[in-house]
Write a structure and sequence with these properties.
By secondary structure, this protein is mainly alpha-helical. It folds into two domains: about 10-230, MFS general substrate transporter like domains (Growth Hormone, Chain: A), CATH 1.20.1250.20; about 245-480, Up-down Bundle (Growth Hormone, Chain: A), CATH 1.20.1250. The chain contains 16 helices and two strands. The protein has a two-stranded antiparallel sheet with strand order 1-2. α4 (about 55-85) runs antiparallel to α14, α9 (about 250-275) packs across α14 and α12 (about 340-370) packs antiparallel against α13 (about 385-410). The longest helix is centred in the middle third of the chain and has 33 residues, at about 170-205.
């Protein structure tokens, strides 16, 4: 981690510097393990629900959309709790413990589950206990995520203030470095979950695969609490709160105005998240119906692992942008160069239109070949254009949105600011669920079917592409109405 950038201007004492870097590292590692555990469950969950619980495709997809929506909504609730009442450390500790309980229940569902005939794909009716365990595991992991993800980044930023100075004093370079390392840790966790954990589930079964998620979450909890004596903590005490929301009504009104002002820009991230993050279940089904063989004889990439190509694209683009594009353009212009947050968001949204369009085209070709040339499957490598463009779109849009919210909202709302981009995922999941339900009903289940060769998943993708194009036009209008960002004025 870039120690000099992280602690620029913070302290002249070597011991506080080392402690701050160490505690930030532990916080980010704990967050990464929580992501590893959660995302280890997500990719193959569509296969788990359809194969082990006998659910239909549309039913299982809607359950997963709802799970995603709740998981991404609770961090906003947690952020308000952390900023106004509990403080960040207690909330992260509570959330990580609840998440661990949820992972344990997920593992229990692999033991107490309906009996299914693998040859006919017919399962016995689920019992109330089985459904209770399944839905409870979803609920607890969502509640736990609300505690962990709402405060992790803001709590890491607190470590840059060893003398409890104002968060506005954090150097821009330190903040940018922290955001970059935060996303690097998340991308690493996503890479491992979609490669290693999905491989374990596919090769060794659900019990061992889900058990790995439990172990990862247990390590996250242990790591976070082990470093508790060394954290910098800001407490929310009754009558002595450092939260300006409680100090005067005028400030509350101003804070609310700031939140309302960023909402139009925030809303543009809903469709972008729908494109890059809400198609996981459908892509797993696509990949399962495609040729997944590799140049390694006898090895096939698991259907749930294709998402790691988007993670790789995300990470490589960040490295290319920071180490090649920015220095090269700065050298050419003979002055420091950085794309503004609005520009990065706009380019990311534009790429998302192209991204989903490639996926629709690939699905059209795949379905046509599957129907006309029985026994001939299209190579799953044709999913890579979507993955590559999706990773670039996310790298531009998601990081820019996080920086935008953090710099535009008052410092008293720092926890809320770091969860707003995640709230896009919650809204996107609900919108996706609504679209799938409407499409399923209006087309008489002609687009989204149990056998995707008989459906028209490509039509669904083109519908999303149309919404993405409208979203791009909407963003242009919102960005012009908003004006200049504070971060761009400072730079």
């Amino acid at each position: 981690m870039d120690q000099e950038a992280l602690l620029a201007g913070k302290t002249t004492h070597q011991q506080p510097i080392k402690r701050s870097v160490s505690t930030i590292t532990i916080i980010l590692a704990s967050q990464a393990l929580e992501k590893l555990a959660y995302f280890g469950l997500v990719p193959n969950m569509i296969l788990y629900l359809t194969a082990e619980y006998g659910m239909g495709t549309a039913e299982a997809v809607n359950i997963l959309f709802l799970w995603s929506a709740v998981t991404n909504f609770f961090p906003l609730v947690g952020a308000f709790m952390a900023d106004s009442y509990t403080g960040r450390f207690p909330l992260i500790g509570f959330g990580s413990s609840i998440s661990l309980l949820g992972m344990l229940l997920s593992w229990l569902t692999t033991i107490i589950q309906p009996q299914c005939d693998k040859s006919t794909h017919v399962c016995q009716p689920t019992t109330p206990l089985q459904l209770f365990l399944l839905y409870s595991s979803f609920a607890l992991t969502s509640i736990g995520a609300g505690g962990v993800r709402s405060s992790c980044l803001a709590f890491a930023a607190d470590q840059l203030q060893p003398n409890h100075t104002s968060s506005s004093c954090i150097a821009t370079s330190a903040l940018e470095t922290l955001f970059n390392w935060y996303y690097i840790s998340i991308m690493l966790a996503c890479f491992l979950s979609q490669s290693l954990l999905v491989f374990v589930q596919t090769t060794y079964g659900w019990q061992i695969g889900f058990g790995v998620s439990v172990a990862a979450m247990g390590l996250s909890v242990a790591l976070f609490f082990a470093a508790s004596p060394f954290y910098v903590r800001f407490k929310c005490e009754s009558g002595h709160s450092r939260n300006p929301w409680k100090l005067c009504r005028v400030q509350q009104v101003e804070d609310l105005k700031s939140l309302i002002n960023v909402l139009p820009i925030w809303s543009t991230g809903i469709i972008s998240s729908l494109v890059t993050a809400c198609q996981v279940s459908f892509i797993v089904l696509q990949a399962k119906a495609m040729d997944r063989r590799t140049f390694i004889k006898g090895f096939e990439i698991p259907p749930g692992s294709y998402g790691l190509f988007m993670v790789i694209s995300f990470a490589l683009f960040l490295v290319l942008y920071d180490l090649v594009i920015v220095p090269l353009v700065s050298w050419t212009l003979r002055k420091p160069f950085r794309l503004g947050v609005m520009v990065r968001m706009g380019v990311g949204i534009a790429i998302s239109v192209l991204c989903i369009s490639t996926l629709a085209t690939v699905e059209y070709v795949r379905r046509k070949r599957a129907r006309e040339e029985r026994g001939t499957n299209l190579s799953a490598m044709w999913l890579l254009p979507y993955m590559i463009l999706g990773g670039i779109s996310e790298a531009l849009n998601s990081i820019a949105q996080n920086e935008f919210f953090y710099s535009e909202l008052p410092k008293s709302m720092s926890s809320v600011a770091t969860t707003l981009s995640g709230l896009n995922m919650a809204a996107a999941s609900l919108v996706s669920s609504w679209i799938v339900t409407v499409v399923d009903v209006t087309t008489c289940r002609n687009w989204i079917t149990e056998d995707i060769d008989e459906g028209h998943l490509d039509y669904y993708y083109w519908l999303v592409a149309g919404l993405s194009l409208l979203n791009l036009l909407y963003f242009v209008l919102c960005s012009k109405s908003y004006g200049t960002c504070k971060r761009e004025v400072e730079n």
